[in-house]
Amino acid sequence: MNINMHILLDELRELNPKSYLNDSIDLTIRSMAGFDKTSDGFLTDTLYLATTTALTAWEGKLQDVNLIAVGSFELDFAQRNRCNIICFDDSLSPVEIAGHIFRIQKKYDDWNNALLSALIAKKPTKHLFAIALGEIHNPMMLLGPLNTLILAAGDIPASCTDTLWRELLNEGYLSYEHPLYSELLKMAEKKPSEQPFIVKFPMHDYTYLIANLFQSGKRCGALHLIEVNQPFSLGQITLVAHFRSILEQAIKTIPDLQILSSNANGFVYQLLNHIYVKESIIINSLQAKGWKVFDEFLCLNLMQNKMQRDDTLLNIIVQELTRVFPAAIILNYKDGVVMILRHADFPFDREDLQARLASFVKKFFLTIGVSSVFYDFKNLKRHYDECSLAIKYGLAQDPTLALHFFDDHVFRHLSRFIFVENGKNQFIHTKVELLHHYDLKNNTELVKTLLTYFQFGQSKSLAAEKMHLHRNTLTYRLNSINNLVGIDCSSRNLQEEEIFHIMLSCKFLEYIP
User: Fold this and answer.
1) φ, ψ for residue 258, nearest 5 deg
2) Domains of the chain
3) pTM assigned to the model
4) In angstroms, how far is CA 275 from the centroid of its own chain?
5) 265-275 b/e with 16+ CB inside 10 Å = b?
6) N vs C: which end of the chain shows fewer Cβ within 10 Å?
7) Could you tell me what percent of the chain has a pLDDT over 90?
């Protein structure tokens, strides 16, 4: 990382220098040299070490030159020559000052290398911010383009009651009704690509530093800092600008920052991350595709084999899926690919879907979870989670299968939810539970027989046909059930509520041992 004069001034303040610097953060230093009286000219990206006495011979020829000087500092000289100078008294030698500068350069090289290493390793965004806070000394927030909170880093003092940050921390987004919402948008429009800028809002006690983030020339979010620990010096602003450039690179590679991607599916990333998106944004974004919020949808999550995970391969999968499902919304998300189909574009026929996905499963070693059909795009996150559950339950049931439908595991999921919340004994019909224990002990199928009998309207013929049994065998089993636990299947006086309880208990016991 190339430091600049403002960073140097911040780091050297303990040595009580005097200075005169312009207010640009572009005073970058790429090399250091001793001041040569015989030189024909000076480079603006080189830092020159000199005595103030030697500088007098170059009066009028030092514009924009970066200088570290030892000796008597004259403000008039710096102003006349419009140079950038940090000056120390004679108690320090140029060699000692050079030593300080080399240590400062190493410090920021190490900081930058840590950021780049985290970027290359695709570490989580929190890891990047933890490194950044090593040198950026005020709390930071990363906001999306809709002023939604992506991440907060650094400690906010309890005394900070500022409503802007408190609302973001508590609610996760800045509402459209907030008095500062339009002000923030105006700030972004006024300074779309410039250096980070300082803002002081009326009626607010704290000063903010805002650095807009861009992708493909479009603003996709912003860094917000609040001045609670250290003043916003130009050195700190330089560091924030550098960190912003790191984040703009990270958006392209780190999965949990793809929410800031400038592509048209940015709102989908927000929904998948359970971040508030105003309904009008969803409506407008879907309308651009010719879709409506309340169409009929299906969500698929296509996951690579853990041993085969490859980001380049994921991009290839997205391209191939786009050819087969041209009307779908398809995007990289986390370690897989999410695809959203609309019924009007693709009939939800299971066999057809399996046939179209078969080549992807074989070619890319994919495991695919398919949600239930849903009718409100705002609920996308819930149905994406169904895909993950379908994969989880499906692999547990048959690890050889690659395509798993949540609809096939609804009872399994519901039974686990009920029993985790309340315990099995509070829900399962006591007589069915006794019958279940008997089956386990004697290797019989009395619970299955009971469920099938009621599923077919207490018809012995239909139930026997379904189970591939002789009618007499079924009758024998029903009599055994009555003798063992007292459920008289031949009685037409069983209450509807009890039959329902018996059937649910039988069904849940298929999934819960």
Assistant:
1) -65, -15
2) 5-102 (3.40.1390), 125-260 (3.30.450.40), 283-406 (3.30.70.270), 423-508 (1.10.10.2840)
3) 0.57
4) 10
5) bbbbbbbbbeb
6) C
7) 42
